[in-house]
Design goal:
Elements: H1 2-23, H2 30-43, E1 53-60, E2 66-72, H3 76-86, E3 101-107
Antiparallel strand pairs: 1-2, 1-3
């Protein structure tokens, strides 16, 4: 019974984190940026097939904005969309370092049963 309670607690915390992260406008870390990219793709009706990957490379300017964006994906429309949406996006927090090139990979996953995007 204890493992089942632990599993339920973990799922509740995960669901709460996802819901909270989608409402945040400022991006504090790579997990927040990953949620923002997934949100951008969902809003633009660009599906990321299960198992496919989008990799975003970017650097941060002195004013904590994204100054350089490169996207590696098999779909050119996804590359163009993400480049356009992420360029000059403001980041927040103290973890970001200017001059560092960050790499973020997002893997397509199957939608949750009963929810369609």
């Amino acid at each position: 019974m204890k493992p089942f309670k632990l599993l339920l607690l973990t799922l509740a915390i995960s669901a709460g984190t996802v819901i909270y992260a989608e409402g945040i406008k400022k991006i504090y870390d790579l997990n927040g940026l990953s949620a923002e990219i997934e949100h951008i793709l969902r809003d633009a009706h660009q599906n990321l097939e299960e198992g496919s990957t989008v990799t975003v490379f970017f650097s941060v300017a002195e004013d904590k904005s994204i100054q350089y964006v490169s996207v590696a994906s098999g779909k050119p429309e996804i590359c163009n969309l993400l480049r356009k949406k992420l360029q000059s996006q403001k980041l927040d927090g103290t973890k970001w370092r200017e001059g560092v090139i960050y790499e973020l990979s997002i893997v397509g996953r199957s939608p949750v049963a009963g929810i369609s995007h």
